């Protein structure tokens, strides 16, 4: 079978399954869940960071989350996020912070539901197992953000020490903005690997999820660029939605990203089904 025919079959299967299994509705669900989980996650992460002594976490967290978003979307929302995160909180283990962690885990559950549909799997794990796993994802992500924020605080000092000893590396150091973008991109890649491997039911090899992750990263780049151009040249959300403009822009952007993410899972499942079918034919 020629490569072009194989690609056509895989894409047809992925797009057909996405459409037949309410992929557009799941994209809406995932986008709203992500937006609703964002603030609780950052509140929980900031509370934990303060408890651990990482007082500069808020600024770093905003960069890690929003540096890969188009500036038209990230700028207004990041201002609101900073204003929320800089509100003093009395302690870490409070009811509000615990609830924030729980609501943040709802976003992880939305990812799980989307991927279970994409991978054609039926969930067999108990609700307690799934919720503990979701909370673990939130906690691990938070600790990762805290560690990164501490490293970025010390980054200028480390850079000066390295430059004093090895002046030749100056051309390779870049700026703190470049490093923040690189770290934010690395966080996205690691996050995609983690959710594809462990959130949906069943087992998958790393090789099984690579095509969908690459598709998601490329789709994210293209989709965000096209949407940013659309906002610059055509859209006028302020006149349409007034004070709700930034929220509506964020929802549309997250909807696009969610559809691309789910299609990445559909692509992985379609490739796996195609390879299994070809193997069965070859065994005959």
Count of beta strands: 0
**Low-confidence region ranges:** none
| Secondary structure: helix percent | over 70%
Quote the average pLDDT. 81
How many discrete structural domains? 1
The assigned structural class equals mainly alpha
Task: Please tell me how large the radius of gyration is.
Answer: 21 Å
SSE succession: HHHHHHHHHHH
Q: What best-fitting shape do the alpha-carbon axes yield?
A: globular
| Count of discrete alpha- or pi-helical segments spanning 4 or more residues | 11
Main location: membrane
Transmembrane segments: 34-58, 92-115, 135-158, 178-199, 206-230, 242-263
Keywords: Cell membrane, Membrane, Transmembrane, Transmembrane helix
Membrane topology: Multi-pass membrane protein
